């Protein structure tokens, strides 16, 4: 029998052949009933959901709402008066009312009796503080204490009761890539949670992620306006940081958020609760880090320590015998590698305590006893003297390295705020290709020391330059008084003849 001119046997053979060829080229088209789709196990540490964690910690996280009052500054008052005078109006004799403002942030309970942690900048200038819980309850709170240096503050709700709270964990155990969850009230949206990873860890000397007393955690969990003061949790529901600021080109979160590490938060908040304020040790000096160039200029074996740029008159440092140019290398036996670590170590010392400072002076190491004072609460940056634009007088003379110098006189000392016993020379001229110019020294600055030798004549500069070249050193170290204060600046002399 034929079908369409093809025998039955040929047709069957052709069908078998096609089936075999299909199996060879395409593989099985219908998987067996016991086959399973490809799946991957989640890697260890990657949660399927953060829901359980967020549900458990959210009752301890609160929104912080404040009403602020700010008095107009003298500058603002002057601007107001000039504005009124432009229109022929007379400013009122009475002082204007303080300006009122509103602000909001986040916080979290750290004790069952109602203590709350938040940022200092959230409650700064606040006259009224309200707490909004995750359930929507609103309570009044009072300020317990603040520490502007670390941007931390402690509040306490006025209503007595027992409140859900969270514990501090260890930020020191965190690694880049570890999961974290931030919870807070951005823009007043309470109970908002965001998740991400630890993207970097600050350390002393990291100018972008560290400040005077804080090495920040950098996280990519979204931190938005109003998240300030809120907690960052690890996967165990423990607080590893307090969200405090963001880096942004837009004003909103772009994934660069920073949190204060939990160990520092725990220490500061405990002190605020127990004592109402944080007291830090104070020397009364400005210091800088010993760089490779500074070490080369002084013939040091390594670039470690903090160099004393200036000493405040009648300060604990001056009374104890610290001098400009001293290099602090140890405090009570603890090595200090740079100015930031030195500041933190000194800040941790008890006011009134006597401590051993190991210093490098005049080519030798020595230990002196330093009685530490208490850091003033209104201590700002030392602006130092304000040198003028220079003196074009013909007095003085041309020195090496393309600089013209003039000895200080009493009138110049008084104008620059320099003590009567201070010696130094005023820069009256400077070549554009001078290595001093390259080191950011300018006409009108005062050079006080060269390699820790008092600069009372041009001959001192010439002698120190010659000695440095003879010893194969590439830098001179100059103590320079400029608009910001006194600093040690290394000057490259490698091209000097």
What does this protein structure show overall?
There is one protein chain. The chain has 11 helices and 29 strands. The protein has helices at 8-26, 51-57, 74-86, 120-123, 262-275, 292-298, 316-320, 339-347, 410-416, 435-438, 458-470, and strands at residues 2-3, 6-7, 61-70, 99-109, 115-119, 126-132, 138-147, 152-157, 179-184, 192-201, 217-219, 231-233, 239-246, 257-261, 281-282, 285-289, 306-311, 327-331, 334-335, 354-361, 364-371, 373-374, 397-398, 403-407, 425-430, 446-450, 453-454, 475-482, 485-492. The radius of gyration is 34 Å and the shape is globular. Mean pLDDT is 84; it is low at 1-28 and 381-395. The strands form 6 sheets. Strands 23, 24, 25, 26, 27, 28 and 29 form a 7-stranded antiparallel β-sheet that branches. The chain has 497 residues and is of the alpha+beta class.
